[in-house]
TrEMBL record:
Keyword check for Signal: yes
Signal peptide: 1-20
UniProt name for this protein: DUF4124 domain-containing protein
Domain of life assignment: Bacteria
Keyword Signal annotated: yes
Record key words, sorted: Signal
Organism: Mizugakiibacter sediminis
Length: 186
């Protein structure tokens, strides 16, 4: 009984001491946003200058605004590369990879799900061909229109029936050039 009482007193004393001690102040370590060698964001606890990286802050970005948008290889640099990436996604039967080539702004969940099902059908079914229509890769063009007035597009021709290549359908996806990259739209 004596041992139990002394243990309780020791425990209570230790707890009271811990509660009375001031809490260690939380360190407010700043987080620095820098720009990596390939243009990717790098977050660090050290200033960008210490890492020999340019700052990723808005003021630094405004001071070093490039004349033209930079493409760091994460997106298609021209219409032909966009077509090649679409072909590679279809060859790999990868709907997510194909979806990454599209701009999705302004689409709600139900519409996006319907479009994902559409892309899954494309990569799962036999594709007869991919063709660029009216696209130029000029840097100033925002998906230059062909002479007939229609917008530049990627045409995807696929067989409706895998055993009958004559029964085919064609989907037309407009091309958009934005921020140095080429994209598909629905």
């Amino acid at each position: 009984m004596r041992r139990a009482l002394s243990f309780l007193l020791l425990t209570a004393g230790a707890m009271a001491g811990a509660l009375a001690a001031p809490a260690a102040p939380a360190q407010d370590t700043p987080v620095y946003r820098c720009v990596g060698a390939n243009g990717e964001p790098v977050f660090s606890g050290q200033p960008c200058s210490a890492l020999r990286l340019p700052s990723g802050s808005a003021s630094a970005a405004a001071a070093e605004t490039p004349a033209a948008p930079q493409n760091h290889g994460f997106c298609a640099a021209d219409a032909e590369e966009l077509r090649e990436r679409a072909a590679a996604a279809i060859d790999a039967h990868d709907a997510n990879r194909l979806a990454a080539l599209f701009l999705w702004q302004g689409m709600d969940g139900a519409a996006a799900l319907a479009r994902l099902h559409e892309l899954a059908a494309i990569v799962d079914g036999p594709v007869l061909g991919l063709q660029l229509e009216g696209a130029t890769s000029a840097p100033a063009a925002s998906a230059a229109a062909p002479s007939d007035g229609s917008a530049a597009a990627l045409l995807v021709r696929r067989a409706i029936d895998p055993w009958n290549a004559v029964a085919a359908e064609e989907a037309r996806y407009p091309l958009v050039q934005r921020d140095g990259c080429w994209w598909l739209r629905f």
